Amino acid sequence: MQKNNNTVKAINKNVRCSPRKIGLVLDYIRGKKAEIALKDLDFVRKKVARDISKTVKSAVANAENNNQFDIDNLYIKEAFVGKSLVMKRFRPRAKGRASGIKKPFSNITIVLQEKQEKKNGPKN
Length: 124
Hints:
3 helices, three-stranded antiparallel sheet
């Protein structure tokens, strides 16, 4: 069994945003070329788009420097988010009560893959 070594990944840990909100932006860029995804993230009107853009740039840099991939052929194979720690805070409420507030953190994972061009020879 031959292992496929044309993928590279980058993980951004403890991003201060809920996984549900990050998932919306990741759905938007999944499957696109890395260059086009970075341009699209510049125009997304979500605060977390900056963190996702950093993660994609890190994955592209890993592919270029560590594995000598051609950055023009990279596309986003997988983009997913996982839960991280949750900060718990309390807010005062009426009649001396308090209610809890959860401030979630997330881990963003971007997996890039290099597209192989098929070499078609002349058909006879």
